[in-house]
Amino acid sequence: MLEAFFTSLLVLVCVGVLAFTGLAVKKLYQGQR
């Protein structure tokens, strides 16, 4: 039970970081053009 909770938490964190990085790259890319 606890392991599943930590796994889902890790997945959420990974998704959040990926989304944040994607937005940051998008803004930087648009700013350069």
Structural account:
It contains one helix and no strands. With 33 residues, the chain is mainly α. The longest helix is centred in the middle third of the chain and has 31 residues, at 2-32. The model has no long low-confidence stretch (mean pLDDT 94). This is Membrane protein. It comes from Streptomyces katrae.
Structure, briefly:
The protein has 33 residues and is mostly helical.
SSE arrangement:
Blueprint: H1 2-32
Organism: Streptomyces katrae
Protein name: Membrane protein
- Average pLDDT: 94
Number of helices: 1
- The helix content, as a percent range, equals over 70%
Percentage of residues in strands: under 5%
Biggest sheet: strands, sense, closure?
none
Molecular shape: rod-shaped
Instruction: Kindly report how far apart the N and C termini lie.
Output: 48 Å
Note poorly predicted spans: none
Q: Taking Cα atoms only, what radius of gyration do you get, to the nearest Å?
A: 14 Å
Structural class: mainly alpha
Find the count of extended strands (DSSP E, 2+ residues).
0
Order of helices and strands: H
Oligomer: single chain
Organism: Streptomyces katrae
Protein name: Membrane protein
